[in-house]
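Appendix C: a fully annotated inverse folding record. The material below is reproduced so that readers can follow the format used throughout the book. The structure is listed first as tokens, followed by the designed sequence.
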């Protein structure tokens, strides 16, 4: 957290290397969050690009109430929400293999890719609010308290959305196995 604040101060002073370091540090988690919310790698990359352009522009005046990763994850979720509201709903799952880390075992990678595609398809069927909380908690690695703070809602609401979303996700995945 201290390192993030130092990078943010450097960025606020115009140090472009700080922006590169912040991007490198968080890009994998952030692209995964965007991909899970949008279901398309190109749209996820556009989302991440938009967030970092805006972030670089506003860094000088930015005062974080929480950690930098939480802030950026929320920015990605908000931008993805804006894209979905604007009608950008690409569920092609193109680029899934680029979001998943390589394991070195081709048969395991194929199996993992298929499972992840199935999971992402099911997640895209959840209500947006549940999908956001699940994605931010599991892929953004934010605690429920952080999610509640970022979206200015009670922790009980966040936990309920998570629980109901996980329950619905289980039902969707179980129904898919029954086919």
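Designed amino acids, in order:
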């Amino acid at each position: 957290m201290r390192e993030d604040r130092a990078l943010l101060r450097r960025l606020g002073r115009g140090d472009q290397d700080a922006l590169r370091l912040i991007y490198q540090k968080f890009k994998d988690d952030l692209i995964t969050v965007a991909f899970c919310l949008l279901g398309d790698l190109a749209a996820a990359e556009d989302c991440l690009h938009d967030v970092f352009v805006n972030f670089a522009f506003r860094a000088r005046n930015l005062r974080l109430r929480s950690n930098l990763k939480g802030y950026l994850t929320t920015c990605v979720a908000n931008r993805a929400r804006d894209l979905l509201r604007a009608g950008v709903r690409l569920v092609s799952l193109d680029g899934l293999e680029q979001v998943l880390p390589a394991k070195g075992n081709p048969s395991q990678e194929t199996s993992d890719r298929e499972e992840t595609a199935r999971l992402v398809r099911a997640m895209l069927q959840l209500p947006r609010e549940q999908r956001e909380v699940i994605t931010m908690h599991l892929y953004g690695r934010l605690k429920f308290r952080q999610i509640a703070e970022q979206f200015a809602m009670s922790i009980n609401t966040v936990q309920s959305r998570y629980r109901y979303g996980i329950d619905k996700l289980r039902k969707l995945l179980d129904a898919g196995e029954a086919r």
